[in-house]
Amino acid sequence: MNKKLLSFLKYGFLLGISAFLMWYALKELDFGKLWAELQSASYVWVLLSVLMGIAAYFSRAYRWKMQIQPTGYHTSFPNTYNAMMVGYLANLVLPRMGEVVRCSMLRRSEGLPVNKGFGTVIAERFVDMLMLLLVIAVTFLLEFSQIKDFFWDLFSSKYSNLEQTINSLYWVGLALLFIGIASLLLLLRFLSRLRKNTYFAKTEQFIRGMLQGVLSITKLQNQASFWGHTIFVWMMYYGMSLVVFYALPATSHLGFGAALSVLVVGSLGMAAPVQGGVGVYHLLVQATLLLYGVSKEGGMAYALLAHTSQTLLVVVMGVISFIAGMLQKPAEVTAAAHEPTNANHELNR
Question: Which of 100, 56, 119, 109 has the alpha carbon at shortest distance from 82?
Fold first, then answer.
């Protein structure tokens, strides 16, 4: 009961944050102008962004399938895709729950151990983080004059004394490093004794499987294809940001540089720990478009079109994938799923 209550409170708290941010973004708008913007929208461009989203999801699913292969499991594309989309659907309910759900879904359909699947998801997130950092760097190079004030105000208002904050983080980092080294030395000192404990042995096996999933990215059969899919996915994300500009009179004059800025802040908004980035995405995108001379109503209309269309896409595709997955017979889990593979022996060495 306590766990259920905590989950409910956490869900309610995050939902409350989303509602507050959405209210804050809407509170000073002229709803007549906002409605006029939405009525004048050309939804052909929104449909094009949805098609780009579908292409990106298919490409991501194939990329994930490629990551899984080095772990010793060859999952089918339909099952990999269904698991991924159900995970994205779960993230709309509770942030970060989707990573566990997608691995559990693939465990059911393909017998892939959750720890190995979760390791591949960690590697996937790491690659996406690198791509986002690359996009941020390119955006700052090309659009620095437009967005410097936005980021300066964002960080200076939050950290009034930046030097003191950095010093505090420095000492916290040193303390965590010391604790980590001490813990590692103690672990190595008593490792042989700890391995006799059943729970420790199971935890160690889980971590080894997860590490195998994380390291799968270094053992891909076709690195060029993997990075090609990664670039394609982010090009689709960029295209989705760009084409929705042309759907609205207020943003139709914006070009490639503005789309980069929206992609960056939109990605940061979607990464926020709230359901589907609701509120955070809208607030950040609206503020960014103000820098390009777009009215608050025009910026909000853009954010609503871009976010709502993609959210509905996830809901529709996720529900279809969930039904397809539930109709499928669960995979039989063989002993191989619980035994160390050759990759595990490599980790032991």
Answer: 109
Within a 10 A sphere around the Cβ of 127, how many other Cβ atoms?
17
| Rounded-to-integer distance, Cα 286 and Cα 266, Å | 10
- Residues 246, 249, 252: CA angle, nearest 5 degrees: 35
Amino acid present at 18 = S
**Cα–Cα distance, 257 to 248 (Å, whole number):** 17
**Which residue type sits at 118?**
F
DSSP state of 336: G
Q: Are 34 and 300 in contact (CB under 8 A)?
A: yes
Please check whether residue 39 is in contact with residue 83, taking contact to mean a CB–CB distance below 8 angstroms: no
Q: State pLDDT tens for residues 134-173.
A: 998 888 888 777 666 666 665 555 455 545 555 665 677 7
Taking only the tens place, the pLDDT of each residue in 293-330 is: 898 888 899 999 999 999 999 999 999 999 998 888 88
Instruction: Find the radius of gyration of the CA atoms of the chain.
Output: 23
The pTM assigned to this predicted structure is 0.76
Whole-number Å distance between alpha carbons of 113 and 103: 8
Which structure tokens are listed for 243? 């084409």
The pair of structure tokens assigned to 146 is 């437009």
- Tokens 């809407």 sit on residue: 26
Handedness of CA 186, 187, 188, 191 (dihedral sign): positive
Find, among 110, 137, 151, 164, the residue nearest to 336 by Cα.
110
Please answer whether residues 239 and 49 qualify as being in contact, where contact means their C-beta atoms are separated by less than 8 angstroms: yes
Token pair, residue 292, equals 């390009």
**Residue 218 DSSP symbol:** G
| H/E element, 147 | helix 114-158
- Report the b/e string of 192-229 with b at 16+ CB within 10 A: eeeeeeeeeeeeebbebbbbbbbbbbeebeeeeebeeb
Q: Provide the pLDDT for residue 100.
A: 87
13 residue type, one letter: F
